[in-house]
């Protein structure tokens, strides 16, 4: 019988990794749900952000401050990507192919600059952890959880309560009708795409704080983050975070109680169950 | 008559020059490495080692007096791609010889192609020797046929020599085929040697979260942890253990990425397999010393974060040494001639003596692997004692 400490620490570990799933899924769910773009390049951008963070932090910059450089740069990239996709009227399904191409290109760029070898960011955050009762709370993971929750709820509130958010949702729902009401759908789409890319920069910082980097690891996150985004509901930032945490905790408990080898089955089992019982949520 | 003499002289010069012209044609050697994909990190190391060797070989006059032309392709860490590329190397590029790729699955793919075209295949990282059934395949990694028995015994002999030998063991292994195969062997060996197994865990290759695994290890309180882990997994495991304030007792990792481990304070006294480290007695070999210098220069230019020569670079270098030695001994690059020679002879590589006289061109019951330990931020061989770095002894945590 596993100890309560083991269970508690595993649940905590699941919450933290789940928060990272949610943070990685934030830009993806927004671009998929509101822009109808399945942006695979988002994963590569997260890693590019992580590598840039590693590089700038290695030069002496605080890892969190690197966002002052990467987030605006990624915003511009996101705007440019959307402009390109809109310019050539790429259909939602074809965005999958086009952005896959971008993902491969960014992966190659990363490997060209930083080689295929593993990179690990040395930072003072990594050495900070607190003991709460019998459980340990590491700072990088806690930061990830706080950032993921703040961004998810912030974006959710923006979409729900502000004119800008309502305009974005309206443009996503029915662009011609929204345009008839004076909404500049094209400009909003550019703004949203830029924001999604900036979120990738944020996720990149969190990833670099707690994980060792290698270019090929881009692909390791796709399946589980897609599951979180789909279970959470497309275009729903809080949904992606909650689903990410549910998957993370389920995986962690599977590892703690049954066998670690079974953990990868969890996300897809949950996804299949979800699709069977609530398929309309994906529409 | 004068015209006849001129024609005869021309013909004679042509006849004399023809073999020389052919002698100048390079020996074309084809291989793939994983330059992209999940095993690109070791692939990058082996690329540098390969290019270093070939450059040096050509500077020394090449193979049998002919320059070596290396045709290196990226198999993207994919066995299916490796198979296609080896097929292409033989049928389209028409190489004279092929050399093995990196990693068990890719080597198995290359072996099938080699068998189809009766090509000799030297390889250096095949983790399941019993599957190597082609009679012209030769492992140059220095590993035994029965590694699932030899390697765990080597490790347990080493930790058994510690001031406080372990009584309990936790075995945590990736399901990556070769790592898993050897870890299952370790389970058997530990049982035979009377160690109590307090935990056995398997995890999928590519696992992202090691938190719960670390918690389970901490809960099990083993004296010694065997990690059937390679690449970056050991660093991720150590990170997870650090987060729950757990410093492992004696801990062994099968094939860690050596560079990143050095930077992890929690990895102190970690044990791992090796065939070569940059200290005596290995560096007493002049060729090894030359190789270290050249590899470091080329590695730095290639942007490798760690440019020290250890297992990955040395097994690759030894593969090329084996080819050169066999070609020089037989004065031939014919596949069957080389294979016949290797079966009956040995090669003294920078790692030690390589032999192929046993089952499936392996040796049984012994090999040239050693145990290294991360001491004072440096990897040093600690077992067997005759290969230990000067003054180094195995330390417990």
Explain what this protein looks like in three dimensions.
The complex is a heterodimer of chains A (283) and B (397). With 283 residues, chain A is mainly alpha-helical. Chain A has one domain (4-282). Helices cover 73% and strands 3% of the residues of chain A. Chain A has eleven helices and two strands. Chain A has helices spanning 4-34, 41-58, 67-87, 92-114, 139-161, 163-173, 175-180, 185-210, 222-232, 237-258, 263-277; strands at residues 129-132, 135-138. A two-stranded antiparallel ribbon of chain A has the order 1-2. The termini of chain A are far apart. In chain B, 43% of the residues lie in helices and 19% in strands. Chain B has two domains: 27-145 and 285-361, 3-Layer(aba) Sandwich (Rossmann fold), CATH 3.40.50.2300; 147-280 and 370-387, Rossmann fold, CATH 3.40.50.2300. The termini of chain B are far apart. Chain B is an alpha/beta fold. Chain B has helices at residues 2-24, 40-59, 79-91, 104-116, 147-160, 177-192, 211-220, 233-243, 258-262, 286-301, 311-330, 335-344, and strands at 27-33, 68-74, 97-99, 121-123, 137-139, 168-174, 196-203, 224-231, 250-256, 271-274, 346-348, 353-355, 370-375, 378-383. In chain B, the strands form three sheets. In chain B, strands 7-6-8-9-10-13-14 form a seven-stranded mixed beta sheet, with helices on both faces. In chain B, strands 2-1-3-4-5 form a five-stranded parallel beta sheet, with helices on both faces. Chain B has a two-stranded antiparallel sheet with strand order 11-12. The longest helix of chain B has 23 residues, at 2-24. At the A-B interface, helix 1, helix 4 and helix 10 of A face helix 2, strand 7, helix 7 and helix 8 of B.
Question: What topology does this entry show?
Answer:
The complex is a heterodimer of chains A (283) and B (397).
Chain A (H helix, E strand, L loop, with lengths): L3 H31 L6 H18 L8 H21 L4 H23 L14 E4 L2 E4 H23 L1 H11 L1 H6 L4 H26 L11 H11 L4 H22 L4 H15 L6
Antiparallel strand pairs in A: 1-2
Chain B lengths: L1 H23 L2 E7 L6 H20 L8 E7 L4 H13 L5 E3 L4 H13 L4 E3 L13 E3 L7 H14 L7 E7 L2 H16 L3 E8 L7 H10 L3 E8 L1 H11 L6 E7 L1 H5 L8 E4 L11 H16 L9 H20 L4 H10 L1 E3 L4 E3 L14 E6 L2 E6 L14
């Amino acid at each position: 019988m596993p100890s309560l400490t083991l269970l508690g620490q595993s649940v905590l570990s699941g919450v933290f990794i789940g928060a990272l799933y949610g943070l990685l899924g934030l830009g993806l769910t927004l671009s998929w749900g509101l822009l109808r773009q399945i942006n695979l390049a988002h994963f590569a951008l997260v890693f590019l952000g992580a590598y840039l963070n590693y590089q700038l932090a290695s030069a002496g910059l605080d890892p969190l401050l690197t966002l002052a450089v990467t987030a605006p740069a990624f915003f511009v990239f996101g705007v440019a990507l959307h402009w390109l996709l809109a310019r050539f009227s790429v259909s939602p399904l074809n965005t999958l192919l086009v952005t896959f191409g971008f993902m491969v290109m960014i992966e190659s760029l990363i490997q060209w600059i930083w080689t295929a070898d593993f990179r690990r960011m040395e930072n003072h955050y990594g050495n900070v952890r607190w003991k709460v009762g019998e459980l340990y709370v590491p700072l990088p993971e806690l930061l990830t959880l706080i950032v993921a929750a703040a961004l998810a709820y912030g974006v959710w509130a923006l979409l729900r309560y502000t004119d800008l958010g309502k305009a974005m949702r309206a443009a996503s729902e029915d662009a011609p009708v929204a345009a008839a009401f004076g909404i500049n759908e094209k400009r909003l789409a550019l703004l949203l795409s830029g924001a999604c890319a900036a979120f990738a920069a944020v996720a990149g910082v969190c990833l670099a704080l707690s994980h060792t980097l290698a270019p090929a690891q881009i692909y390791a996150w796709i399946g589980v983050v897609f599951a979180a985004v789909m279970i959470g509901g497309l275009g729903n930032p809080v949904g992606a975070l909650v689903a990410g945490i549910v998957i993370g905790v389920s995986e962690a408990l599977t590892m703690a109680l049954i066998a670690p080898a079974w953990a990868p089955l969890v996300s897809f089992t949950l996804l299949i169950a979800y699709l069977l019982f609530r398929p309309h949520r994906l529409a | 008559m004068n015209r006849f003499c001129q024609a005869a002289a021309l013909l004679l010069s042509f006849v004399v020059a023809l073999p020389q012209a052919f002698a100048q044609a390079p020996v074309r050697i084809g291989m793939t490495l994983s330059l992209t994909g999940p095993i690109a990190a070791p692939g990058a190391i082996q690329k540098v080692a390969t290019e270093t060797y070939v450059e040096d070989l050509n500077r020394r006059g090449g193979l049998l007096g002919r320059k070596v032309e290396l045709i290196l392709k990226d198999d993207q860490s994919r066995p299916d791609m490796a198979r296609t590329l080896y097929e292409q190397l033989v049928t389209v590029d028409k190489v004279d010889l092929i050399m093995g790729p990196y990693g068990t699955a890719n080597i198995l793919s290359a072996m099938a192609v080699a068998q189809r075209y009766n090509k000799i295949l030297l390889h250096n990282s095949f983790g399941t020797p019993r599957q190597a059934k082609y009679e012209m395949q030769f492992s140059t990694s220095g590993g035994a046929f029965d590694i699932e028995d030899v390697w765990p015994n080597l490790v347990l002999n080493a930790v058994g020599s510690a001031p406080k030998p372990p009584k309990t063991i936790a075995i945590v292994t990736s399901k990556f085929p070769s790592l898993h195969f050897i870890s299952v062997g370790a389970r058997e060996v530990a049982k035979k040697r009377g160690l109590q197994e307090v935990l056995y865990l398997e995890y999928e290759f590519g696992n992202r979260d090691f938190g719960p695994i670390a918690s389970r290890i901490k809960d099990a309180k083993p004296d010694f942890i065997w990690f059937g882990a390679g690449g970056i997994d050991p660093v991720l495991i150590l990170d997870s253990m650090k987060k729950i304030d757990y410093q492992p007792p004696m801990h062994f990792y099968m094939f860690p990425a050596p560079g990143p481990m050095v930077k992890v304070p929690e990895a102190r006294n970690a044990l791992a397999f090796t065939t070569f480290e940059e200290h005596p007695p290995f560096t007493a070999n002049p060729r090894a010393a030359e190789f270290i210098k050249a590899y470091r220069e080329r590695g730095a230019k290639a942007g490798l974060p760690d440019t020290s020569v250890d297992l990955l670079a040395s097994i690759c270098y030894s593969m090329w040494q084996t080819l050169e030695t066999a070609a020089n001994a037989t004065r031939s690059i014919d596949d069957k001639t080389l294979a016949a020679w290797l079966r009956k002879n040995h090669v003294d590589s920078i790692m030690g003596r390589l032999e192929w006289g046993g089952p499936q061109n392996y040796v049984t019951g012994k090999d040239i692997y050693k145990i290294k330990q991360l001491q004072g931020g440096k990897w040093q061989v600690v077992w067997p004692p005759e290969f230990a770095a000067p003054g180094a002894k195995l330390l417990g945590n």
